[in-house]
Write a structure and sequence with these properties.
- 32% of the residues lie in helices and 20% in strands.
- It has eight helices and eleven strands.
- Strands 1, 3, 4, 5, 6 and 7 form a six-stranded mixed beta sheet that branches.
- Helix 2 (42-58) runs parallel beside helix 6 (161-178).
- It catalyses: an N-acyl-L-alpha-aminoacyl-tRNA + H2O = an N-acyl-L-amino acid + a tRNA + H(+).
- Keywords: Hydrolase.
- Its EC number is 3.1.1.29.
Length: 238
């Protein structure tokens, strides 16, 4: 599922292109493993995707003079597009053979790859399907730990699992940008604990006016441009 995020300070309704729009566009590929016999739980897939984004951002190959650093900088200097595709069987094994990082949740496996040009996907990933990422939770998720970071989803939006995975990744990334180096190191060293939950209507209204990082979708797929999709509620940012 393709997603593009517009930070809340940058209106998606502008008519004039900005430098960000004119820069070469990159995308962060994420592949979720969905085997027919044992698909992952939806919430676990969302949380695993969010952690995968954080793992890549904090990886030594993504910073400084690392081998992925230039691609990550080029990607973050434009729009932080993310595309979630699905794989199983031989498709998943081919994806695992490419440079990237696999992050495992309770039932989900998500592999994240260094950013690629929008029109320059590796063929092993380009042939994977975007559709078919609809997932369910066998049981309702337990209440989120109030002391842990929570990525709150808009209760009024009906998003496919793939769309929601990318949006959760956006929220995690916006929170990461707001943290100090010490706070980033603490989160990383703890293994990036986080929860993804759907906010109730009253809570969502409070969250969107709280000053916490807010994701506004650019509206390329599924939902209207400018829709608020995720609020990143990290304890260090409250």
């Amino acid at each position: 599922m393709s997603n593009d995020v517009t930070p809340s300070t940058d209106s998606p309704f502008r008519t004039e292109p900005t430098a960000r729009d004119q820069a070469p566009q990159f995308v962060l590929p994420l592949v979720v493993r969905i085997e027919k016999a044992a698909p992952p739980a939806r919430t676990d897939a969302l949380e695993t995707a969010a952690r995968a984004v954080l793992v890549l951002l904090s990886d030594e190959r993504s910073v400084g003079d690392g081998e992925w650093a230039e691609a990550v900088r080029d990607w973050q200097d434009a729009r932080i597009r993310k595309v979630v595709r699905r794989a199983r069987g031989a498709e998943w094994r081919r994806a695992e053979a490419l440079p990237g990082i696999t992050v495992t949740g309770k039932s989900a496996e998500v592999r994240v790859f260094p950013p690629v040009p929008l029109d320059g996907w590796p063929k092993e990933l380009a042939r994977l399907q975007v559709s078919g990422t609809d997932l369910d939770d066998p049981e309702p998720p337990v209440a989120a730990d109030p002391a842990a970071p929570v990525l709150w989803l808009n209760p009024d939006l009906d998003m496919s699992a793939g769309k929601a995975m990318a949006q959760a990744g956006h929220g995690a990334q916006l929170a990461w940008w707001e943290l100090s180096d010490e706070e980033k190191a603490s989160w990383r060293d703890a293994g990036f604990p986080l929860a993804v939950r759907i906010a109730d209507a009253d809570r969502w209204g409070e969250l969107t006016h709280s000053g916490l990082p807010l994701v506004r979708d650019a509206g390329f797929t599924e939902i209207a441009p400018g829709s608020c999709t995720v609020v990143a509620d990290h304890p260090a940012l409250r």
